[in-house]
Structures are given as C-alpha cells and as structure tokens.
Backbone:
C-alpha cells in the first residue's frame, strides 16, 4: 500500500513538473525571434532610420542567470547599406559577458538599412540590451 501511494505521488509530481507553462514575453530566450525595432539617433542622420527585419534575442548568460545577476550592455555598431551589422564597440556594460552575448546576437540580425535620397546608407547606431530575471 505504501509503495503504491509513493509511486502515485511521484507520478503526480512528475506530471506537474512537465506541464507546460505559458511563455513570459518579457524573458529573453534564445529561440525568441524579434523584429521591428527602429534605430533612431544613428549617425550620420538619414531620411529614414534603419529597422531590424529579423533576428534572435541575445541569450541570457547561464552563469549570470544562475547567480541571479541582472545587467545590461550598450553597444555601438555600423548597419551597412546591405543590412548587416559590423564594427562592434562596447560603450558600457554591467558585466563584459552581457556585451559579448549581445554582440553575438546582433551579428546575425538582418536590417532594412537607413536611406538618404532613396539610397541605402551605412550608419553608426547604438543599442541597449537589458538582461532581467
């Protein structure tokens, strides 16, 4: 009887642990696609600002998440006339690993470039990524 109750309790605990939890849109997830971010304040100024077409959110550094450390990174980079990000620079970061994870994500982002007089233009932009639990 005790063995049966124990097995039933363990099975119930296992089912509860495996139940799906609704996603929290405020949590940065590696598989979460993002788009539509418009970058204003880029230099030189242009008729239209660059816009993120598609990309994945930066991954929260596992060892910082396990330590319950929140943080941020501010990076500068060029968005080229072809819509790629390059020439990265760390402006500020609460921990260098937040900068690294942000840079890795932005490297793969695809942009609609800024335009001047209808022509694509390379511009220098800044981006702030927050990492919160």
Residues:
């Amino acid at each position: 009887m005790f063995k049966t109750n124990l097995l039933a309790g363990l099975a119930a605990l296992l089912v509860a642990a495996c139940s799906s939890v609704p996603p929290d849109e405020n949590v940065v997830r590696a598989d979460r696609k993002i788009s539509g971010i418009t970058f204003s304040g880029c230099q030189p100024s242009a008729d239209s600002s660059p816009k993120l077409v598609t990309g994945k959110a930066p991954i929260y550094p596992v060892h910082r998440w396990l330590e319950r450390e929140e943080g941020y990174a501010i990076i500068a980079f060029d968005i080229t006339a072809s819509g790629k990000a390059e020439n990265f620079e760390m402006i500020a970061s609460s921990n260098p690993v937040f900068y690294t994870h942000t840079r890795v994500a932005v490297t793969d982002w695809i942009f609609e470039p800024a335009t001047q007089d209808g022509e694509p233009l390379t511009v220098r932009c800044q981006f702030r990524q927050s990492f919160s639990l």
About this structure: DSSP finds three helices and eight strands in the chain. The chain has a mean pLDDT of 81.
